[in-house]
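Kindly inspect this one:
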Amino acid sequence: MDQGALLGEFLRSRRARLSPGDVGLSEFGGRRRVPGLRREELAQLAGVSAGYYTRLEQGQRATASEAVLDALARALLLDDDERTHLHGLAHRKAQSRRRPRPEVLRPGIRVMIDSFAEVPALVLGRRTDVLAWNPMAHALLAGHLDVEAPQLPAARPNWARLFFLDPHTRELFVDWARKADDTIADLRLIAGRHPDDLRLHELIGELTMKSTEFAARWSAHPVRTCASHTREYAHPVAGRLTLADELLRLPDDEGQRLVVFNAEPGSPSEAALKLLQATNATRASEIKA
């Protein structure tokens, strides 16, 4: 999808969620045929011509001035994440459509995540590929997969694909729907930053075709920064545990993020993590033997 189409899609999704009453307009004429504000109403609120706004929404224009974007953001009642996303869509320069090379993980990052011996840690690439995980992250999230898989670019697990298409991953999350919403919102932001990434668009197309739940959530066009969470897991070995996760951007590696999971000190969840660590160590010893 080209940049103008992405911008238009986002504008339509945000216009559709507003009612006249949300923005202080009176409703006349009874029930509307379609939800949301009319294009003319939004254009009036933003102080632009209806024709200009229509061209933006139809993808005929891929750029707009800072002032116009700020006016549209105010009229659409966008939050900070949505406002940033809007500006990014309108100002993103077209890039080459060549198929990108597989992402590379710096050796120092691999050493770092392996040093987190007692807690799960992994690195996600910009397309949510798992570039590396330590033994604890593998045991927590994907013990049914080959622990060496992230080291082979052609076989790397992809987190978004696992989450929506792999039944083992789905069963791990107690509140699957909330995690699904966060995953879509994060992937939308990534797609906005990298509109010409062929591998990313192939992933989105695959998930749209294979998962009706992904397709429904994707069409709502959510965007939200997801930097920290607290989630409940139902693990087949460790049982129920509540973990906090932190996503940290790696400034020297575009789009790559470190994810570290922790349990509250002294909690049953910390004891469950220690059980998982001990079980994993025992299995590793048996394999070596």
Q: What stands out?
A: The chain has two domains: 3-91, 107-288. The two ends are 52 Å apart (CA to CA). The chain has 13 helices and five strands. The CA atoms of residues 73 and 83 lie 6 Å apart.
